[in-house]
Design goal:
Elements: E1 5-6, H1 8-29, H2 38-65, E2 66-67, E3 72-74, H3 76-99, H4 104-114, H5 117-131, E4 132-134, E5 137-139, E6 144-146
Antiparallel strand pairs: 1-2, 3-4, 5-6
Length: 154
């Protein structure tokens, strides 16, 4: 049986990252309407990177805070893919809010899309689980991902 534990310092850091990323992204997003053209796109991308990257970082730090007492490694390709998914989904949501600012439907749709468990959270979670390699196996709610052993030449 595995013994699970959390690192309280990393849990607090995860919360701090979430708060800082939220503040930063809201500040950047407030500047989107003040500019036009490429400036507007730059502020939108900056806000998406701040919020999407902040959400991803918060979750990743929280995953690092959790320990099962066995070594765990993360695959770089899928870890970066989970970051890109978070930034893209947030960017689409921010675009919709700023494209149609006076429409309640646009606000509700953008909020539902950005916060959707089926899109961002599931994609990010699956990519993070797939990127995880342990000495044994990592279990997700739907399947078990076996760690791959490196073959050595003799």
């Amino acid at each position: 049986m595995l013994h699970a534990s959390y690192d309280p310092a990393l849990v607090v850091l995860s919360i701090a990252v979430a708060v800082f990323a939220s503040y930063t992204s809201l500040d950047l997003a407030s500047r989107i309407d003040a500019t036009g053209g490429r400036g507007r796109t730059a502020w939108l991308v900056g806000a998406a990177v701040a919020l999407g990257g902040g959400i991803w970082s918060m979750h990743f730090i929280a995953m690092l805070a959790f320990s099962l007492g066995m070594p765990i490694a993360y695959g770089v390709d899928l870890t970066i893919a989970s970051l890109a998914a978070a930034i893209a989904v947030v960017g689409i949501g921010l675009y919709a809010v700023h494209r149609w600012p006076k429409r309640l439907g646009a606000l509700l749709a953008a909020g539902a899309f950005t916060g959707s468990v089926k899109i961002k959270k599931k994609a990010q979670y699956r990519a993070a689980i797939a990127a995880t390699a342990t000495c044994g196996s990592a279990t997700s709610p739907t399947k078990t991902v076996k760690a791959k052993k490196k073959k050595t030449k003799k």
